[in-house]
Specification:
The chain contains two helices and three strands, in the order αβββα. By secondary structure, it is α+β, with helices and mostly antiparallel strands. The mean pLDDT is 91.
Length: 81
Amino acid sequence: MLLGPEATATAILRYGGTIDRLPESVVRLRISEDADGYLVATAAYLEVPRAAGDVLRVVFPDPEMERRIARSLVNLGGTLP
């Protein structure tokens, strides 16, 4: 999802981004089947397309985001290790 204007400008300036493709906040889920059902792995990061043409992934540990995702998965019937 796209960031707000101030966060977008900060990410562009801090990480050498470009205004041609804006930074995005990404939450990725990877789901695989195991013996007991399914295993869900999550990753949350900031993806900044840069003026040089590459894309930088910036990961900040965010305990609150981890709790929200875990709570959502439990509400859907999952269990935590």
